[in-house]
Amino acid sequence: MDIRSLAWKNLRRRKSRAVFTGIGIFLGIGTFVALSTLTSRMENAIQDKLDRFGANILVAPRAEQVSLGFGDIALGGTQVARAKLSGDDRARIESIPMRDRLGRVVPYLLHAADASGKELVWMGAPSADLSGARPWWRIRGAMPGSGDEILLGSEAAAALDKGPGGTVSSGGRTFRVSGVLAPTGEKEDAMVIGDLRAVQELAGTPGAVSYIEVAAHCKDCPVDEIVAEISGAVPGAKVTAIRQVVESRREAVDQFRKLGIGVTAIVLAIALLVVFVTVMGNVQERTREIGVLRAVGFRRRAILSLLFWETGWISFLSSACGVAAGVSVSLLSAPLFGVEGAGFSPGIAATGLAAGTALGLLGSVPPARKASALCPTEAIRSL
Amino acid sequence: MEPIIRLDDVSMVYGGNGTRVAALDGLTLEIAHGEYIAVTGESGAGKSTLLALLGGLHLPTSGKVLVGGVDLSSLPPDGLSDIRRKNVGFVFQAYHLLPYLTARENVMVPMAPESADARRKEERAEALLDSVGLSGKGGRLPSQLSGGECQRVAIARALVHEPPLLLADEPTGNLDTATGEQILDLFLALNGKGRTVVLVTHNRGNAERATRWVHLKDGKISGETRKTEAVPVRNISMAQPGNWRRI
User: Which of A96, A258, B119, B191 makes an SS bond possible with B36, Cβ 3.0 to 4.6 Å?
Assistant: First the structure.
């Protein structure tokens, strides 16, 4: 018989009160674990998609806008490029110190040229990188597999009246249409898409590049640092982080996380109150028992210890049940949030367990102090 | 005999503005080591207050309570707890056993804050239960025991630290006459082994078993009787009480 076993035996005797004391902690920790697990998984899933679905940094030649006019008459303006990009810039980008954070680096060349008698914009990119750079493209037919094959945007295919297997001539060369792109709503719809080298030859600018798309792995994304390193590696280029994509998606997750924190905080505050009220009630109910313990020589610290052990047991067990419930809920509800396999996170579980136990102990501090300060005679009354 | 307790002009006033009630009024009393003293009086005479002061459950409003030569008013709350644990055993009218613990566990309760070996604690509790005639009943809950048995468990609990002073508040108040007699015999036997016993009672017959009888009225001693002849003691085996320990 020690303080710990005395606390445990008392809990077993007052099961319903123990359950009521712990239910707030159970719900609070369950909510915390479920929402934290889901948020964490959603963040990872979004990040994976971001990383998979393409670029978030654009490297283009630095250009200046020049206004044109005659006297007081403004004639608009034009952009003058300070420098041009080349195929070698790809290698420079891929050699920055944070290259481990880089995914795909894809150079593009845009060139307006004849296509079977129609003036269209040709977009060139390395054939091997095309499917990876635009994984959301839906193609009737296939991606270009060589320099002699091209992909037509939906509008371009309609204008040329060509489909997979057809041919398009330009610059004295004949290109086979390997596929037609389903409408994307983007400018690619009106383009002819081919291998970078073929488009460079067509434009008569071997090695030229219009811009380079860089996909950075943006988990805890240090975009600013990556941008700075790329700017250093390609001095003549204007490097822009496509923050909108990253930040808008992150914002959505952040809002979900804030909602989760808010809900968890409210539930845990209620749990704290429930612990405080029930333990205070417990102390009132056991005034005589506490008086007897004081009369037989229990010091104040022993009474504190007894109540802390009791609440500690309840809080720990409730938190453990809350963690289990939270993990189960996150697993069951993961498909509703578009998350695959919201699994067990030891860090979140350990945090939930520690937070629940600490919360229970915190809520029992005032009642325990009150109990330890009870005058033995006031408590026993019959004396 | 050497006084184990001395009350020196002790007053105890309850309440505050306008509702002050003097439970004890300038009481002076000495209790010698090994005495068996009965305290009687009407309700409100101050009996329970006196017992609370003797056990360090209360501190007097004025005057001094010296236990083993130590002024209780000079001790911090934990010091008073230590006095109670080591030197005072309480027996209550309503037993005050913890209903969710067995008889053996109830006896072990005062040892709970100690870090002693659990087996040693159990052996000690069993020995005490044996000594009060409850052999083989250590595993029963209070609800499975009679009133007299519960009071025996309470006495065993009071003796767990071998206190030299035993304070009993109407220990037979909830018992039938025959069972009450057995409990009083037990107190007599404990006194016979050297323990100082202070018994608060309404019952004149119970008081007459003590070696000294103090009657309280309005917080003062209104009468005192000392007995000279010995009272026969039944054959009850008891653990040898320890000597008074100075704090």
Answer: B191
The whole model's pTM is what? 0.64
How confident is the model at residue B240, as a pLDDT? Answer: 31
**DSSP state string for B151-203:** HHHHHHHHTTT--SEEEEESTTTTS-HHHHHHHHHHHHHHHHTT-EEEEE-S-
Residues 6+ apart with CB under 8 A from A259: A35
Mutate to test the interface with B, among A282, A292, A306, A369 (most CBs of B within 10 A): A292
Phi, psi for residue B145 in degrees, rounded to 5: -115, 155
- Chain A contact for B118, CB < 8 A? yes
Structural domains in chain B, sorted by start: 35-61+85-226 (3.40.50.300)
Instruction: With beta carbons less than 8 A apart as the criterion, state whether A47 and A218 touch.
Output: yes
Q: Which residues on adjacent β-strands are paired with residue A79?
A: A65
ipTM of the complex: 0.81
Q: How far is A289 from chain B (nearest CA, A)?
A: 7
Assess contact for A297 and B84: CB atoms under 8 A.
yes
Q: What gap in Å lies between CA A311 and CA B130, rounded to an integer?
A: 35
> A–B: how many Cβ contacts below 8 A?
92
User: Tens digit of pLDDT per residue, chain B (247 long)?
Assistant: 568 889 999 998 887 666 788 888 889 999 988 889 999 988 888 888 898 888 888 889 999 999 888 888 888 888 888 888 888 888 888 888 988 899 999 999 988 888 878 888 888 899 889 888 888 888 999 999 988 889 889 988 988 888 888 899 888 887 788 888 888 888 888 888 888 999 998 888 888 888 898 998 888 888 888 876 544 443 333 333 333 333 2
| Beta-ladder partners of A59 | A212, A239
SS (H, E, C) chain A: CCHHHHHHHHHHHCHHHHHHHHHHHHHHHHHHHHHHHHHHHHHHHHHHHHHHCCCCEEEEECEEEEEEEECCEEEEEEEEECCCEECHHHHHHCCCCCHHHEEEEEEEEEEEEEECCEEEEEEEECHHHHHHHCCCCCEEECCCCCCCEEEECHHHHHHHCCCCCCEEEECCEEEEEEEEECCCCCHHHHEEEEEHHHHHHHHCCCCEECEEEEEECCCCCCHHHHHHHHHHHCCCEEEEECHHHHHHHHHHHHHHHHHHHHHHHHHHHHHHHHHHHHHHHHHHHCHHHHHHHHHCCCCHHHHHHHHHHHHHHHHHHHHHHHHHHHHHHHHHHHHHHCCCCCCCCHHHHHHHHHHHHHHHHHHCHHHHHHHHCCCHHHHHCCC
What pLDDT is recorded for position B39? 92
| Helix orientation angle between B77-87 and A287-295, rounded to the nearest 10 degrees | 70
Taking 50 as the pLDDT cut, the residues of chain A under it are 382-383
- What residues have CB less than 8 Å from B111, skipping those under 6 apart? A1, B121, B124, B160, B161
* Per-residue pLDDT, A291: 84
Query: Residues of B numbered 147-176 whose beta carbons fall under 8 angstroms of chain A's beta carbons: which are they?
Result: 157-158, 161, 169
Tokens matching residue A382:
């019959």
* Three-state DSSP class for residue B119: helix
Strands, E, within chain B: which ranges?
3-14, 21-32, 36-41, 62-67, 70-71, 88-91, 165-169, 196-200, 212-217, 220-226
